[in-house]
Amino acid sequence: EWKELLMKMKELLLFLSCVLCVFADALHSDISTVGCSDSDGEYMYGLDGEEKWYADFNKKEMIYPQPPFMDHGTYPGAYEQAVANQQVCKTNLQTARKVMKDFPLEQDAPSAVMIYTRDEVEFGEKNYLICYVTGFYPAPVNVSWTKNGQKVTGSSINVPYPNKDGTFTQISRLDFTPQQGDVYSCAVQHLALTEPLTKIYDVQASGQSDPGVGPSVFCGVGLTVGLLGVAAGTFFLIKGNECS
Ligand SMILES: *[C@@H]1O[C@H](CO)[C@@H](O)[C@H](O)[C@H]1NC(C)=O
After folding, report:
1. Prior bond to 140 cis, omega within 30?
2. How much is the mean pLDDT over the chain?
3. How remote is the CA of residue 188 from the centroid of ligand 1, in Å?
4. How far is the C-alpha of 123 from the C-alpha of 181, rounded, in Å?
5. Do domains 30-99 and 112-221 have the same CATH topology?
6. Distance from the CA of 140 to the center of ligand 1, in angstroms?
7. What's the pLDDT tens digit per position in 40-70?
């Protein structure tokens, strides 16, 4: 087992520390993140690349983002621990600011933004649009959505997930029902970007056209012509027999 302590102290923005534990046989790896800024904070625990739980400091509770059928277990005192970690983080941030004054602020713009759907697109069938943002530092990014040029609300975003290289990933999700002709976009704002990075999702271009009536009409016509042929054949067969 080895532990790596990654600490990046920034003059202005975020103080984040990640403890990454990888078991010797590398069967599983878990990660715990404590982060804070003047206005924001994060506590997250992940296992094998997935968020297991995170602290929601507005709702004042731990959130277990698994589907409801999963038994995620409960961890008494976990939220209180997260709150205590925030105190430590903020104290460290103040200290780091004092000590490292004029230390240049490191900023990496997102290296990739991708937009895609969770499920294969069927017109009129509920689906999710995903905006996947990775490779940025510091966290977080803001993601906003539009539908046909109009702002839409109701999207959700996960807490920043640390990558191995010290940058972060965030995934924003929007409920939508694909309709022919609709165009969606997700716009990503980050400290290192002068203007938002925007990705377009065109339902028309991406949608699988519903098989619809085409094949059944084709099949029906074919069957009818075939049966007519059989009927005509039978007719002439009987007629032929009558004449002889
Ligand atoms: C994200 O949005 C908040 C609230 O509107 C704003 O204060 C913050 O500056 C934004 N962050 C970035 C990186 O643009």
Report:
1. yes
2. 84
3. 10
4. 10
5. no
6. 9
7. 899 999 999 889 999 999 999 999 998 888 8
- Atom number of ligand 1 nearest to Cα 189: 14
Rounded CA-CA distance 218/75 in Å is 60
- The hierarchical CATH code for the domain 112-221 is 2.60.40.10
Q: How far is the CA of 40 from the centre of ligand 1 (A)?
A: 11
Q: Which of 151, 118, 134, 142 is nearest to 190 (CA)?
A: 142
Considering the entire predicted model, what is its pTM? 0.71
State the Cα–Cα distance between residues 198 and 177, nearest whole angstrom: 21
CA 191 to ligand 1: nearest atom: 13
Closest CA to 5 of 18, 22, 16: 18
- Over residues 139-181, the pLDDT tens digits come to 999 999 999 999 999 999 999 999 989 999 999 999 999 999 9
Give the residue carrying structure tokens 């005509």: 232
Pocket of ligand 1 from Cβ distances under 6 Å: 142, 189-191
Atom 8 in ligand 1: which residue has the minimum CA distance?
142
Nearest alpha carbon, ligand 1 atom 3: 142
Going from the Cα of 142 to the center of ligand 1, the distance in angstroms, rounded, reads 6
Domain range summary for the chain, segments of one domain joined by + = 30-99, 112-221
CATH topology of domain 30-99: 3.10.320
**Is the bond into 138 cis (omega within 30 degrees of 0)?**
yes
DSSP-H helix ranges across 37-172:
78-99
- Cα(41) to centroid(ligand 1), Å: 14
